[in-house]
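the two lines:
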Amino acid sequence: MNGAERMRRELMIRVVRDFTGGRLEETIDRIPILLRPKNAPFSRCCLYHDRAVLKYRLMALLGCRLEDEDDESKPLSAYLNEALAADLSIEGEPLTVASAGCSGCPESRVVVTSNCRGCFARPCLFSCPKGAITVENQQSRIDYDKCVKCGRCEKACPFNAITRTVVPCESACPVGAIRKNEHGVAEIDFSRCVFCGQCFGACPFAAIMERSQLVHILQAMKRGQKLVAIVAPSALMQFPGSVEQLFSAIHQAGFCDVMEVALGAEETTAHEAREFVEKMLAGQPLMTTSCCPAYVELVRKHVPALLDKISTTPSPMKFAARQARARHPDAKVVFIGPCIAKRHEAREAAEVDAVMTFEELGALLAGRNIDLQGQPPWPLERPAAESARNYARSCGVSAAVLDELRRSIPELADFKLDVQTINGIDKKTLRTLKLHAAGKAPGNFLEVMSCPGGCVRGPCSLVK
Amino acid sequence: MCADKIKIDICCGTTCYLLGAADLVQLEAKLPDEWKDKVEIAAVPCLEACTTDKLGQAPFVRVNGELIPRASAEAICECLFELISGQTRGGAR
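prediction for all of em together
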């Protein structure tokens, strides 16, 4: 937990508390001042800058796209009223950047610091393959017209005097979707972004924010709209107490019913196993999973050669949402999980009306004074299969599909199963993925999870 | 349990859990080995310390009855050090 996560969660709790107490419209404009009163410590250059960014943080919490702001004097209460009048589902991309929050980190490069002793051996100078280093006034100097950022001088220096400046969002993004615009402020290129959320977690100024539906959900509840919560299997280790206690708490918070997404994962497993056999019998060399929405987006935007290799099986979220709709035709469906990309998947899918993260769920419970300990167990119709609940972990999907194949599909004997997994999308695994696309990597079943470790380590999980 | 053990109650009310207590469940692993038999760590229901204006002070942990706001593993260790050795860290002050 760091200061950015803490502030994000604290704001969510305050919003839920004040909404529930019927006073949010009066308090929301005061929250930035309440959190940064005069004479109190501040984090950015001054108190007023902190307050300004808090306002943007609250706007994102109200679902706003910060890039669309056209009237800086518009108060939070006006944005709140718009959110209260809006529908449950929101349009547009799930991530937004607060330009006032972005520090405009200097471009990544290799720099000589004052630790340089101007030594005699000069290993930096000798290690540089480009002749970019000279020594002036007993200090090494890098000629940036020649430097290729290889970092050899950095490794060679015995005084750790050479270091590399980093732009955390840019180096976290696996697909080069975030870079600075003409004003020197980070901007996301949504024609490249896969919504993995790595920049969101990496920015030390917390300038990259998710567009929340929390207030929309609270308002739907207040209007008497029936909402069913479908809860991702990664919730199991996120909260104190049992899953049955968590479900009781979610029900108490205002949902008419609570269901496991893992029940949808059971359907995904059966469907995906059948699809795999069909594809293999039809001569397709490789099939990949489809349940991770950031991975699907990655293929669409960056590895189109893999598009026809992705399984067409609906994700556990979609199957679970269909179950929820069948059971409650008059209700709207809210997916609860640790994922930003699911917001994008839900927006494109007809089955799901809103997405809530574990952080937001925690804030909903905290803001409504619902504790998990002491909750009665929720009467699950039946617990989902262990293999389906394991979808939340890396290798869980392929294990479930393999198991299903062995159990139920006798034609399996005709071909050799070769499972490969990509555990976390980064620049390196993206290259591996491109090898798969080119048919130059082994395996006929490929599982890809955007987050290292699987959904349990999602960008909006509580315990990492 | 031994009566003179130091009691550490980690508030697991949802607010404290969300604002940092989730990270404190591994507190025991962070303690020096020689302290481990001197403390008794419990995850307890809401201590009701986080009223609206004290939200910013969560998470709360109670060490032998004394409430520690904004508790972190480091702050708890500091408090334990004082209780166990009878002095503040970094020598007498």
